[in-house]
From TrEMBL:
Annotated protein name in UniProt: DNA helicase RecQ
Enzyme class: isomerase
Keyword ATP-binding: yes
Entry keyword set: ATP-binding, DNA damage, DNA recombination, DNA repair, DNA-binding, Helicase, Hydrolase, Isomerase, Metal-binding, Nucleotide-binding, Zinc
Reported cofactor(s): Mg(2+); Zn(2+)
CDD domains: DEXHc_RecQ (cd17920), SF2_C_RecQ (cd18794)
Residue ranges occupied by any Helicase ATP-binding domain in the UniProt entry: 28-199
Domain named Helicase C-terminal: residues: 220-372
Species annotation: Bacteroides graminisolvens DSM 19988 = JCM 15093
NCBIfam families in alphabetical order: recQ (TIGR01389), recQ_fam (TIGR00614)
Stored Pfam families: DEAD, Helicase_C, HRDC, RecQ-1-like_HTH, RecQ_Zn_bind, RQC
Gene Ontology CC annotations of this record: bacterial nucleoid; cytoplasm; replisome
Domain HRDC: 529-609
The enzyme's E.C. designation: 5.6.2.4
Amino acid sequence: MAEKINLTEQLKRYFGFDKFKGNQEAIMINLLDGNDTFVLMPTGGGKSLCYQLPSLIMEGTAIVISPLIALMKNQVDAMRNFSEEDGIAHFINSSLNKAAIDQVKSDILSGKTKLLYVAPESLTKDEYVDFLRSVKISFYAVDEAHCISEWGHDFRPEYRRIRPIINEIGKAPVIALTATATPKVQHDIQKNLGMVNAKVYKSSFNRPNLYYEVRSKTVNVDKEIIKFIKNNQEKSGIIYCLSRKKVEELAEILQANGINAKAYHAGMDSATRTQNQDDFLMEKIDVIVATIAFGMGIDKPDVRYVIHYDIPKSLEGYYQETGRAGRDGGEGQCITFYTNKDLQKLEKFMQGKPVAEQEIGRQLLLETAAYAESSVCRRKSLLHYFGEEYTEENCGNCDNCLNPKKQVEAQDSLCAVIETIIAVKENFKADYIIDILQGRETSEVQAHLHEDLEVFGSGMGEDDKLWNAVIRQALIAGYLSKDVENYGTLKVTDEGHKFLKHPKSFKITEDNDFEEVEDEAPARGGGSCAVDPALYSMLKDLRKKLSKKLNVPPYVIFQDPSLEAMATIYPVTLDELQNIPGVGAGKAKRYGEEFCVLIKKHCEENEIERPEDLRVRTVANKSKLKVSIIQAIDRKVALDDIALSKGIEFSDLLDEVEAIVYSGTKLNIDYFLDEIMDEDHLLDIYDYFKESTTDGVEDALAELGDEFTEEEVRLVRIKFFSEMAN
């Protein structure tokens, strides 16, 4: 059938392109001839066209099974743009009402619809199966086919039911398409879809225009990201984070720093999510911050950078997400922040899942760690993972190739590794092999009596980092292989056996060092000191002057840690002042003006370059707890009842309330004090704070005497602060 059709003419007629890319034409001919077809093509290679054009040529309606509602809408809109008839493409999923579904059915029955996109969940519903039985199906396309495999990065159990449903609806050729699949995943897909004999078209996974870099995750990731974006002004970028909370936090921080960014994750209401996606596509915003878990299906050709705030759970996920950069063949920077701590977190998330699933997840994490830590060409590592050999010594477009490390001879080390793998009968994973080399008598080693082996302890002179590097690079060089079916046990290849008989030079580069970084100390609290002592002392003088003029103690205006931060960060506007710990909007308005004027003058006179341009503006803490406490106090709920309802200790509640009033929010707790406190006691404590130069509770108790409690002092201090300072 395909020979009679001039496909290039049809391509020009429907899509306006003059020629096909890569394997596209061969794939279409195979499908038009009625054969099952398996397509492995990287993101940006033109997978969609492989089924879109045949659907327009063939008789009947093509069913496209796709997991992403957002992507369905995009593709249907795109198809309608190529045609005069809106009914040419439709989708059915949970977002449609009954009237819309009736319209879809009517267009299909009248023969208008050539492409029907269906979510796998919808396909399993009896009403759709019954309806589709009465329709002439041209072929079935299974997009994102890696979702079938538990070894794929986005396993969906409902994908396992696709074949039985196809059998129920009616026989037609199947085309399965994916942008990421290791040999193991490819086999899984073909087996599960009953298309083991399908013709396989595999394009190279190499994307030469993408630059890959892995950076150590320091305490200042936000700052690094802001600096990177500001150096890439007006370019489109995607940032992936692991959690929805981080997505929202980071989007707010970027906005506060003058970056046009919005959030995107599955927990948002669909209208907002769609709006944010459209704003990104229409270039109303430059940056979208999204969860890794949410495959965005964004078909934007000119995304210039993809940043991973957290390392993804698998290299397939990483490849798929970085693949959204530079789809037009132009620049695409892929920056990933990595610390081993993130992998430990991801492992914790897996607890509670079935053991087999945990084991698979752990394997995938180990591959990701190996990629991040290795100092081998990133391209070589990635392509090896997908079963493709990259022969260039230096790709010239990744951090490891642009900053190559010195190579060291590891011939003897590789011989030791091969001997050990053979000694344990090729039944164990890399970490166990390293335990044997290092002579560690772990319970597992003892259970197998392997402490008696001749190779036990033969590698004790080196550290684990070297052994990991030897194993990783021997896998890439083809001396070792990994048995994926058996959770990554190491095998020696024929080349490896030859190497052991006749050793030759084997040079490796040592792995990158990703030092653990201590978490940043909280901004508030003792022990911090100002970077500019001269300014700090001037600010203290100004505070003293104001305290006399306004007749309030100095600490009521700004506390010491706030002044120290001002003498470090140099805020010169009220907006900037609100980034200082302990300074809310109210406080900034009430007292801030004179402080900003003083700081600005000091900077000008001393030609100080302020760090504000590169300083990350933090977002005011809009914690739900604080908001609900303020609302409860406004409704005059007793404070002990608030603590009870929030499930926190009374003293912890007072901590929260103090933080609220210290940042400049006025709270009236008189209703509670009137009920629980003796009026004379209250006045004595209030007068003490009026006269005192410190707001310490212990100082107050020492001065006031035994009949006063710590809670009373703290409660009156809250009242005093709120009235005098806010």
